[in-house]
Design brief:
Length: 626
């Protein structure tokens, strides 16, 4: 193919999935001329699996993306079909927003957002090659020979690189949703020296609504009032659909067990490693053999389609086996499959090759984001896209990088886990991955991250002003709660006794009452006479959590202060660990490979001991004096 010079950009983003979208928008919004490339223009922001956003820990990620100035939360608010806050019965740290989304509406919304963003071009073109020039610039080359010269490249290729589909005995080269795979780019990356490996993931069948007996299933309505993802959405729309729940049974299990030898996974055809926390139904049947049944969420894919998604039934068994086991399920006895479930194997990187900015350690100007970095999930991808896009732009502008630490966010935790510990299967965010989860709540994501977004340049003046007003109201209300004395009147004591908590003998501060497990902000309203009546619900919730969990939060904060002490001790870029006397050989090797940014990051590398950390601290102390 004859090549031609097609122009220059500051940043080229390979991919318009969830990572590529956030990367492209962030880079363009920070003033860099940006081109986002996609294999298929009609699938910008495609959700090849469940059209749902959020859920445990993932909802936190969406809130954080929004707080930094990203797009996913706004798009989800504009296109949701049903919304629920999960885990309301548990502590505030694990409350997680989850929404079922209209898939086509979401993809269209995101595409239009890219099309209308200044400094951003969106192009349908498969990139097949990537070159590093001697002057530090990069070139990306399309299948049609167009050569674009760029100062930075962000790879956000999802599950397309070297994609291979598996359904029973059938297997072919392919991307998700019937798209073609990106083969050449894998070869180009390997040629450059990037080491790739194989992961796999899967998706369940989509079935026709008319073939499903929803009356046989448990209906699951959305929650009112709807809580939006974005801190900027003032009036979220209504819930528009019902979801349903049904269950597998002994018969389903038997069909699967009888056909396990036909599974490409159990037959050894798939070599890629699948997501531990999103197992296929055949995996669940084998791994949790004692479990009599598994839950299936039956969820609409959109308003203008009859396709239903069967969450929990991901499979790569042959098509006829899929039909057979689905028809054993209550309500699915006459089900018709519209899209068959499949597994997909793809190339991705070992994220230990990346810095916390998501730039490759060995290839300045080259960044990785999303499923390409070894993660799984739309929200994980979007979070990384935002971080890669911001950091590519900051570097080109000669500004300090945006590195979010573990105590600032789930985004920081996700990236630190990836680049410090690596991952041996597709990485999924969970609240248990954060040691600071009482502080990293979805309700306070703006408090934690909007100042960072503002500093970077992604938060407008108007939004910043609204944020500051909200913080002022929060502080005012906290002050009022802490200084208000509730007297031991009959009305107060009747209320306390009716909520099974002891009456007062003297006046007590409102915050002390709020700390009682039987009470909350809403319950105390009738006796809290100085409460402002125009306080927004989100400010009320913030104040309640901060007061109720004050002691725990304070304790966690002191752990954070300790952690940050080490996080501020940065290593020089050209650090030679082999020259540091006293470091054990294993530590020298691991540190040399991962090249941590700070002593804090070094302390989390497996194989680096507390004694090694002491040696590093002494070395830094001497080095900074010299
Ligand atoms: C079958 C399946 C099941 C999944 N199940 C779920 C699920 O239930 N829930 C969930 O959260 N996640 C699921 N995932 C993962 C989810 O799709 C990804 O985590 C998420 O989409 C990753 O976003 P991304 O931006 O990294 O990549 P993608 O969304 O895959 O986007 C990749 C982009 O790169 C472009 N591209 C690739 N190569 C090139 C090239 N050479 N040139 C130009 N453009 C290129 C593509 O056109 C596309 O725009 C599943 C994925 C698949 C395929
Ligand atoms: N390979 C991948 O990348 C891949 C593949 C499959 C799934 N996933 C991820 O895993 C998630 C699905 O995984 P899963 O099947 O383990 O389920 P999940 O982890 O999302 O569901 C766990 C819990 O969430 C709640 N929940 C789920 N759907 C709900 C609904 N419609 N209404 C109310 N509550 C609901 C339920 O309490 C359920 O038990 C996706 O959202 C995606 O993030 C990723």
């Amino acid at each position: 193919m004859q090549e031609y010079d097609a122009g220059r950009y500051d940043v080229a983003v390979v991919g318009a999935g969830h990572a590529g979208i956030e990367a492209g928008l962030a880079s363009a919004r920070l003033g860099c001329s940006t081109c986002v490339f996609t294999i298929n223009m009609d699938w910008v922001g495609n959700m090849p699996c469940n059209p749902s956003i959020g859920g445990t820990a993932k909802g936190h990620l969406v809130r954080e993306i929004d707080a930094l100035g990203g797009e996913m939360g706004k798009a989800a608010d504009a296109c949701f079909l049903q919304s629920r806050m999960l885990n309301r019965g548990k502590g505030p740290a694990v409350h997680s927003l989850r929404a079922q989304i209209d898939r086509r509406e979401y993809a269209g919304w995101m595409k239009h957002r890219l099309e209308t963003t200044p400094n951003l071009d969106l192009k349908q073109a498969e990139l097949i090659d990537l070159r590093r020039l001697d002057d530090g610039n990069w070139q990306v080359i399309t299948r049609l020979g167009a050569v674009y010269t760029c100062r930075a490249v962000i790879i956000a290729t999802g599950t397309f690189l070297g994609g291979r589909i598996f359904v029973g005995e059938a297997s072919w080269e392919g991307g998700p949703d019937g798209m073609f795979p990106a083969k050449e780019l894998s070869v180009a990356l390997k040629r450059l020296g990037v080491s790739l490996r194989r992961f796999k993931t899967g998706t369940p069948a989509r079935v026709h609504r008319a073939s499903v007996d929803l009356d046989q299933m448990e209906a699951q309505p959305g929650e009112d009032p709807v809580v939006p993802f974005s801190f900027e959405t003032e009036h979220p729309g209504p819930n528009r659909v019902l979801c349903h729940i049904t269950w597998t049974n002994e018969q389903t299990k038997q069909v699967i067990l009888d056909n396990l030898h036909r599974s490409p996974l159990y037959g050894g055809k798939i070599e890629g490693i699948g997501p531990r926390y999103c197992p296929s139904i055949e995996d669940k049947i084998v791994r949790f053999a004692g479990k009599p049944r598994h839950q299936i969420f039956v969820e609409p894919c959109g308003l203008n389609t009859e396709e239903l998604y069967l969450q929990g039934m991901s499979s790569s068994l042959p098509e006829e086996v899929q039909l057979k086991f689905l028809r054993t399920v209550k309500g699915l006895e006459h089900v018709k499959i519209m899209r068959t479930a499949y597994a997909i194997e793809y190339d991705c990187v070992d994220p230990l090759q990346l810095r916390p900015t998501l730039e490759f350690l060995d290839f300045p100007g080259l960044y990785g984001a999303g499923q390409f970095n070894g993660s799984s999930g739309y929200e994980e991808a979007a979070a990384q896209g935002l971080v890669a896009g911001v950091n590519a732009a900051l570097k080109l502008q000669g500004r300090p990088p945006m590195v979010l630490d573990r105590a600032s966010s789930y985004i920081g935790t996700l990236i630190d886990d990836l680049v410090t510990k690596g991952c041996s299967d597709p990485y999924r965010m969970m609240t248990s991955r954060s040691e600071y989860r009482l502080v990293l709540r979805q309700d306070n994501a703006d408090q934690r991250l909007t100042p960072v977004g503002r500093q970077v340049g992604l938060i407008s003046d108007a939004r910043w002003q609204r944020f500051q007003e909200k913080q002022a109201r929060r502080e005012q209300e906290l002050k009022r709660i802490r200084s208000t004395v509730i007297p031991p009147t009959k009305k107060v004591n009747d209320l306390l006794v009716s909520h099974e908590t002891s009456p007062l003998v003297t006046g007590v501060h409102l915050d002390d009452l709020l700390k009682r497990p039987q009470l909350n902000y809403e319950v105390l309203k009738p006796v809290d006479t100085t409460r402002p009546d125009d306080l927004p619900l989100d400010v009320q919730e913030l104040c309640q959590v901060e007061v109720k969990y004050e002691g725990y939060i304070r304790r966690q904060q002191s752990q954070i202060d300790e952690m940050r002490r080490l996080e501020c001790k940065l290593f020089p870029e050209d650090m030679d660990y082999t020259a540091i006397a006293g470091l054990r050989l294993e530590a020298q090797e691991k540190l040399g490979k991962i090249r941590p940014r700070s002593v804090g990051q070094a302390s989390r590398i497996s194989g680096v001991s507390p004694a090694d950390i002491s040696v590093l601290l002494i070395w830094l102390e001497q080095h900074s004096r010299a």
